[in-house]
Amino acid sequence: MGVRPPARPVRLRPRPAPPEIVARTPPGQFITQRLPVLHYGDIPVISLDDWRLTVDGLVEQSLSLSWHDLETFPRVGLTADMHCVTRWSRLDVRWQGIPAGAVLAACRPTPTARFVLISCAGGYDTNLPVADFAAGDVLLATDLDGEPLTPEHGFPLRLVVPKRYAWKSAKWVTGLRFLAGDEPGFWERYGYHNEADPWREQRFSE
Length: 206
Ligand SMILES: Nc1nc2c(c(=O)[nH]1)N[C@H]1C(S)=C(S)[C@@H](COP(=O)(O)O)O[C@H]1N2
Ligand SMILES: [Mo]
What we know:
By secondary structure, this protein is mainly beta. It has one domain: Oxidoreductase, molybdopterin-binding domain (Sulfite Oxidase, Chain A, domain 2, Alpha-Beta Complex), CATH 3.90.420.10. It has five helices and eleven strands, in the order αβββαββαββαββββα. Strands 1, 4, 5, 8, 9 and 10 form a six-stranded mixed beta sheet that branches. A five-stranded mixed beta sheet has the order 3-2-11-6-7. The structure holds ligand MTE and molybdenum atom. Molybdenum atom (MO) binds next to loops.
């Protein structure tokens, strides 16, 4: 019997990512192909028949939209990268839904409205400056990867804020409240950074 050849050396370091992927990876993040399901608490059970999106606070027109009402809003597709503060990023997530700008056009925030508090079934909430909410790539998404949202990814409606860490991309959204002053949301109250820009690594507040 011959001697077995030595095992091939184990590759200790992953293959370096191509430069175009590196350029899209914020500091301290790694790329995953999956979309991990991540949230605090239980997945709320929501029926479209009694679901509503409430828009109130400093707006000229308060709204209480049924799912049927929402179907009259314009819809767009959006391909965006998603960055979770726990360090995974997934590139090119394909969403479809209602641009935040369409909701702003319908409720018309007053000039005093500078912040929006987004609330969700189950009690989660998160905050954004109206200027961030109004960015052209912010979506109230109904579809993910070409299919209606599954319960674990936010059925029936979730926010998508590509330029912020994903805890601001609230799932199961039921309310938007426009405010003059900032009110921290769930993770922001627990010490996560108020602005949450992944390119500036704004993970936690000092
Ligand atoms: N309502 C609600 N939305 C939430 C969360 C949550 O705990 N509750 N977690 C956020 C976090 S931290 C992340 S990373 C993303 C994950 O989205 P996904 O589960 O669809 O991948 O949802 C965000 N939206
Ligand atoms: Mo996250």
